[in-house]
């Protein structure tokens, strides 16, 4: 659906997933964010950039919304 390669071996993903919750749902949201941002700028922004951007600007709101539903 998003990108065929779900690389978990990037430096930031390794650091982040070992220290913080690394649920499949969060990873899927990051991949979705990567796809949307890449489409917006017309090139692949890369997983690390998408991860850092999503964690910085979207993660807290996403978690609040998830906990409100659960």
Brief write-up:
The chain has helices at 11-19, 24-41, 47-57, 59-69.
Reading the helices and strands in chain order gives HHHH
Sheet/helix structural class: mainly alpha
Average per-residue pLDDT, rounded, comes to: 80
Rg is 12 Å
Q: Mind describing the biggest β-sheet?
A: none
The percent range for helix content is over 70%
Give the overall shape, derived from the CA principal axes: globular
Low-confidence stretches: 1-5
Query: What's the total helix number?
Result: 4
How far is the N terminus from the C terminus? Answer: 25 Å
Beta strand %: under 5%
Oligomeric status of the shown chains?
Answer: single chain
Number of strands: 0
List the helices and strands and how they pair.
Elements: H1 11-19, H2 24-41, H3 47-57, H4 59-69
Could you please describe the fold and organization of this structure?
The chain is an all-alpha fold. It is 70% helix and 0% strand. The protein contains four helices and no strands. α2 crosses α3.
List keywords for this structure.
single chain, 70 residues, mainly alpha, 4 helices, globular
């Amino acid at each position: 659906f998003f990108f065929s390669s779900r690389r978990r071996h990037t430096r930031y993903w390794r650091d982040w997933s070992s220290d913080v919750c690394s649920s499949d749902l969060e990873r899927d949201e990051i991949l979705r964010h990567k796809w949307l941002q890449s489409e917006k700028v017309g090139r692949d922004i890369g997983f690390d950039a998408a991860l850092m951007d999503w964690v910085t600007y979207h993660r807290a709101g996403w978690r609040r919304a998830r906990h409100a539903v659960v």
